[in-house]
Design a protein that fits this description.
The chain contains four helices and five strands. It is flat and about 55 Å long. It has two domains: about 1-45, no CATH class; about 70-140, no CATH class. It starts with a strand and ends in a 19-residue tail after the last helix. By secondary structure, the chain is of the alpha+beta class. It has helices at about 20-30, 65-85, 95-100, 115-125, and strands spanning about 1-5, 15-20, 45, 85-90, 110.
């Protein structure tokens, strides 16, 4: 089995498993692949590091401090990606998210602010939203 990192034009990343490398090309050519988030069929392989089996095993540091650092780094990368690639609509987030969902506005990635009630209403109405990870603390704010 071969695992590929896949991505759609809307930057939704996911993975797919294929019996052989030609299976991806075959399924893509027949329009069988689609993004599990938005359903777009223009799926392509994303850049990924190869999995290389080594002869020596290295012990992994699974300490709480290491796990926390890894988690904070991943959340920071996600936040930077959103800020660099999505439109900041500020406090109009709920209105714009609903307009995109209903097809009244251009389909694109957005971020901004919403009240707790606006978030509940969007979720109840099936509008796909997710919270943006908090900004990582600045080095000067750490103990």
């Amino acid at each position: 089995m071969i695992r590929y990192a896949l991505i759609c034009p809307h930057s939704h990343e996911f993975e797919g498993w294929f019996g052989a490398s030609a299976d991806f090309d075959d399924q893509q050519g027949r329009g069988l692949l689609e993004c599990p988030v938005c359903g777009d069929k223009a799926v392509r392989k994303a850049i990924m590091a190869p999995a290389v089996a080594g002869t020596k095993s290295r012990p992994q540091d699974n300490s709480p401090a290491q796990n926390h650092a890894v988690m904070m780094e991943a959340m920071g990368r996600l936040r930077r990606h959103v800020e660099d690639n999505f439109d900041d609509v500020g406090d109009a987030f709920a209105t714009e998210a609903r307009a995109i969902h209903e097809g009244r506005s251009e389909d694109r990635g957005i971020y901004g602010q919403a009240t707790s009630q606006e978030v509940r209403d969007l979720v109840e109405d099936g509008v796909p939203i997710a919270p943006l990870p908090p900004e990582p603390p600045k080095k000067t704010e750490l103990n």
